[in-house]
């Protein structure tokens, strides 16, 4: 199902519960535990009556990360460009900015979900950089991994340990929760290695630092698309100037680390962001081309076909038929 662009909300950690979970009766309930920082973190059981997911959660974006372990219940879950049938053993990853939706197919939901923002890992720079580059958090990444029964028990054990710390009064709870969460993501990354994906190789050197600084800059420029405003009209000269390097040095460095020139990375990101809008909104192709600063719809269509091997109109029609 597609939505008018005005109907796609962006949820914060303070507003997503109203959109994601069924309203509960006005009864006396147990007080919720809270985490006081740094950053934001929560973990809850999916069978908790306060967190029973709605039958349908329309297309939305999150301003934070979410990790779900499903051990009960089934439904159709979309992340960015991909759609999955989520069931027992599905481990899901959602990241800020991705368009996501949910349609329940079987009740009796069980498992865990935890949410956290980038500031939760702010004190650990290495962990923060790793999270930004995990393949399942990328806009084109595979956002769901299907686990075996043994793997379900393995991951469920870590969620249980995180829950224990979250409910405790330990002075070290934040560090312990971060450590367990990193283990979950590292293990998921090892399982993900059999799936096709593209990610920047994690080498600790100046080239990698420059590449990450560059990707951070142009990632930030895409934030305007979330509010359906055009991205800033920048080029490689602009980014090189912001990074205090020459354009040629930027091109050579990014290509050596990422395997592609920076211009290609930027164009691929534009194509992937446009694909999300084609799938999940009723924006016209002309309106989408305007958001990405194309001079005309025909120029955008040629660009899109070059990177996606299909025209935007045919892509939208194909995805519409798939979702019927």
Offer a concise description of the structure.
The chain is of the alpha+beta class. The protein has helices at residues 16-20, 125-133, 149-167, 173-192, 206-221, 223-226, 236-242, 247-258, 262-280, 285-291, 297-308, 312-323; strands at residues 10-11, 41-45, 56-62, 65-79, 82-86, 90-94, 99-116, 144-146. Strands 1, 2, 3, 4, 5, 6, 7 and 8 form an eight-stranded mixed sheet that branches.
Helix percent band: 40-55%
Class based on secondary structure composition and strand pairing: alpha+beta
Radius of gyration: 20 Å
Question: What is the approximate shape?
Answer: globular
* Strand and helix order: EHEEEEEEHEHHHHHHHHHH
- The rounded distance between the terminal residues' Cα atoms is 8 Å
Strand content: 15-25%
The largest sheet, given as strand count, sense and whether it forms a barrel, is: 8 strands, mixed
Poorly predicted regions: 1-5, 196-204
Number of strands: 8
Number of helices: 12
Average residue pLDDT: 85
């Amino acid at each position: 199902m597609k939505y008018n662009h005005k109907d796609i909300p962006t949820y914060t950690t303070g507003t997503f519960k109203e959109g994601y979970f069924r309203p509960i009766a006005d009864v006396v309930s147990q007080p919720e535990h809270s985490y006081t920082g740094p950053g934001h973190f929560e973990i809850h059981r999916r069978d908790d009556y306060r967190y029973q997911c709605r039958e349908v959660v329309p297309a939305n974006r999150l301003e934070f990360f979410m990790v779900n372990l499903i051990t009960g219940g089934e439904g159709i879950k979309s992340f960015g460009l991909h759609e999955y049938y989520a069931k027992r053993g599905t481990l899901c990853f959602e990241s800020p900015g991705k368009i996501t939706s949910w349609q329940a197919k079987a009740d009796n939901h069980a498992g865990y979900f935890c949410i956290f923002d980038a500031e939760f890992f702010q004190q650990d720079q290495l962990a923060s950089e790793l999270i930004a580059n995990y393949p399942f958090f990328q806009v084109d990444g595979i956002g769901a991994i299907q686990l075996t029964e043994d793997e379900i028990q393995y991951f469920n054990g870590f969620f249980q340990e995180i829950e224990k710390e979250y409910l405790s009064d330990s002075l070290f709870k934040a560090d312990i929760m971060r450590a367990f969460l990193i283990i979950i993501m590292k293990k998921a990354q090892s399982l993900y290695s059999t799936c096709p994906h593209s990610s920047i190789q994690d080498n600790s050197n100046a080239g990698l630092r420059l590449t990450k600084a560059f990707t951070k800059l142009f990632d930030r420029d895409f934030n305007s698309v979330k509010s359906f405003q055009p991205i800033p009209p920048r080029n490689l000269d602009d980014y090189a100037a912001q990074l205090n390097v020459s354009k040629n040095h930027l091109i050579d460095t990014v290509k050596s680390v990422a395997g592609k020139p920076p211009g290609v990375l930027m164009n691929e990101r534009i194509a992937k962001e446009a694909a999300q809008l084609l799938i999940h909104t009723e924006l016209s192709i002309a309106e989408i081309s305007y958001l990405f600063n194309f001079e005309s719809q025909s120029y955008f269509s040629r660009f899109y076909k070059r990177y996606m091997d299909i025209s935007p109109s045919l892509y939208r029609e194909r995805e519409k038929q798939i979702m019927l």
